[in-house]
Every structure is written in C-alpha cells, then in structure tokens.
Amino acid sequence: MNIVILGAGQVGSSLAELLAQESNDVTVVDLDRLQLQRLQDRLDIRTVVGHGSHPDILAQAGLEDADMLIAATQNDETNILACHLAHSLYKTGKKIARVRSRSYLDHPELFDRSENTSAIPIDVLISPESLVTDYILQLIDYPGSLQVIDFAEGKVRLVAMRAYADGTLVGKQINSLSDHLPSNIKTRIVAVYRRNQVVMPTGSTKIKAGDEVFFLAEAEHISIIVNELRRSKERPSRRIMIGGGGNIGFNLAQALEKAHQVKLIDRNMQQSREIAESLDNTIIIHGDVSDKDLLLEENIDEIDLYVAVTNNDEANIISGMLAKKLGVRRVIALVNNQSYVELIQRNSIDVALSADSITTSHLLHYTRKGDTVKVATLRKGAAEAMEVIAHGSENTSQIIGKKIGDIEWPSDITVGCIIRDDKVIIAHRELTIEAEDHAILFLSNSENAVEIANLFSPETKRSWFS
C-alpha cells in the first residue's frame, strides 16, 4: 500500500515505523528537516520537507498515486485542508485526519458525507483526546486493569490485569479459573507476561504474583472475572482527582461527575473558571498539580484514584508519584515520551499511557491487508490483538472448514474466540472456522500480523491439473 503521512511527530513517526515494517511504501511530510532525517536514517521511507496542506508539497509526496492519506500534524486546519485537497485534486481513496478541537468535534455534521455531499471529505476522523478519555474510563470501570480493549462492536473485551499475591488465582493453574466462576461465564487467558517475557498459556500454566495476565471474555462477564484476578482489598474508585483541565481532563470530569466524587486541579485561572461554569458536580481547584501543600489541603490521602492528564509529561509524572506517596491507592498518568513510560511503569505510577500510542493503535487496522476490523497494540507495540474476518469458502481459503488445531498458525499466536452470528464462542482446538467468522487473535510478536492478514484473505487454491 502507498501511504502518505503528514506530520513527523509521535503519531506520524510511530505509524511510519509500523507501516514501513509491513512493507508499505511510506512518505512522511513535515516542516522539521532534522526530524525527517532521523526517520529516514532508520526507516526505509521517503520524506518531503514542506507544509502538509500546500498542493505542491502534496504533489512532491506522490499523493496522486497514494492509496491513503493520514493527516496527523498538530494543526487541525492543516489536516482538514490536506484531506480536502487530496479529495479535490486526486480522489485519494482513504483520507484520515487527526482533529483535536472541540469546536470541530461538536459539529459532526461537518464531516458526515452520507447526509451532506458537500461536507468535508474525511473518511476517518480521529480525536486523540476522545480516544484517551474513553480508554481511561474503561480502566476506571475495572479496578486494577492495565488495559481494556473492545472487539466485535463491544461484545468482547480483552483485559490485562496484574496478578497480586493476595489474588484468588495466584499459585493456581489456569484451568482452575472455571472453578471460581459461574458455569455460564466463559473466558480464555490468551497470554501471560512474566518479567517482561511472554508465557504462552496452557491449562497447566500457573499464575504467579506479578504476572500480567491478558484474558478475553464477553463484555458483561468482565467484572466478575476481574474480581477473581485483582487483589482482595481493591475496591472501585469513587473519589477521583484529576490533574489538568484541558480537553481530556474536562471530558473525564464531565463523564464521571454524576456517579463519582470528582475534584479537578488546573493552574490556569481562566480555564478553571470556564470549567467551573460548564460542570455541575465537580469541585474545581485553581493551583499546581505538583504542589504538595495543596494536595494535602484537598485530602489527597482520601482519594481512590488520581489521574494526571496535563499537557506536560514531567508534571504528570511528578504529581502522580507525589500523589501515590501521599496515600492515593491508584495513579494513572498521561506520558507521551516512551522513554519515560519504560522508566516509571510500576514505579509509583500504576498505569502510564500515551495518547500517541492509543491513537496509533486506533489507526492500524485501516492500513492492514485483508479484512482486519480492529488492531490494538500491546506491551508498547511488541504484541498485538486483532479482529479479523474469515472471507471466502473452503475452496478459496486456507482456514475455512478447518479446525483451529489443524491450521498452521504462525508461531506465538493464540486464538481467543470466534464471533459467529453475534454469538461469542471461546476458541478450542476442535472448533471449526466458518466463512464470515470474526476471529479475535493475540500475537505476542507483532511482526506476524502480515502473515495473519494473508492467512485470512481468500486465495484460489492451486488446481491438481495446473
């Protein structure tokens, strides 16, 4: 696939790296010549220096022959105009734009071409702030979770949990999990990470304290399963403090304030006043999130969850670590610098997440071959979970009509479940793949994604007489 990416920031760079590894023809456009040179030094890509919404620059980038444009600069107007130009000048097949401002997002009719053919020609609109907000809300729904990902339009969820010493299942074999659950609840543990090494699970695999456990189940059953894996003393987060009143902080407070006790701290007086006027039940505090005296004054030791979502990584890290030291049970911090994430995870901060990684993960399935419905990166991009549709027939497919145990899967692949006629079927060796099945897969090595896409794509079998 020929793909043009506008913007060489974290999102653009991450996408370029992932797409180049999958043998796509990638061109990155940015004004920062030095950043482009760094990318070109380590990746097999083309780069163009210039403004992403200028027609001559888009022409230099080869947009005329591109299958897809991903406009991921920091400027909404640049991204929107670039998609408009791509449509008007080249009829580019797929146009994806990163848009952050609520002024645009509050008017979806601007981009809905199904209702209005004169709407802005963007096929996929992504808002990093909205994606991060939804991500954090799911982490709050499941106390102790490290990652929560929806598949099959929310019918199935993949959840990562840390196994603690006082958890029910620590020291027990995976096949004993069913003994602790009601008979109607089915789940599959698709991977266990132990000291950053993957353990491909079998029924006899024992869960140890500190393990990171990934399991799949129907969405309505997740809470019951989480209760078996989390530490016995852990309780839902009712009292929540949010550090930062930007788009993410505001959206979180708005979503949480009806069912939770919410406090929000922001250092900008004008922004604090505007938030106070817009929210009904949230306590707004003007101040510095890393001010120890302020946190103590606001009874930080009584807070169940502190969420640091300012636009400054260092402020999020410092305030998160300080909040933990002062008695907060759980801390989630927004940290976009990946080198920071690796240093602080499990060191005072319970979950460090990156808006850029979440955004990149959301975009991946649009770039995959075959009918890949969704892709989610895990373990800082080392692993993936994906939803793929089996198209074709027994005559044109390598997998349709075969039992899961008889298919020659790439190494380190776990089939979690199959969705068939809106029913979730937990995978087992004797289960036969049928046409139009949605398969949820766990890949401990993301490099196998291309092989999986090819495996699920129909191809005519070679005739005996050819």
UniProtKB/TrEMBL annotation:
Record's signal peptide: none
Ranges for domain RCK C-terminal: 146-231, 373-459
Gene3D superfamilies hit by this protein: NAD(P)-binding Rossmann-like Domain, Regulator of K+ conductance, C-terminal domain
Superkingdom: Bacteria
Keyword Ion transport: yes
Keywords (A to Z) from UniProt: Ion transport, NAD, Potassium, Potassium transport, Transport
Pfam families per record: TrkA_C (PF02080), TrkA_N (PF02254)
RCK N-terminal domain segment(s): 1-115, 237-353
Keyword Ion transport: yes
Name under which the protein is recorded: Trk system potassium uptake protein TrkA
Organism: Thiomicrorhabdus lithotrophica
Gene assigned in the entry: trkA
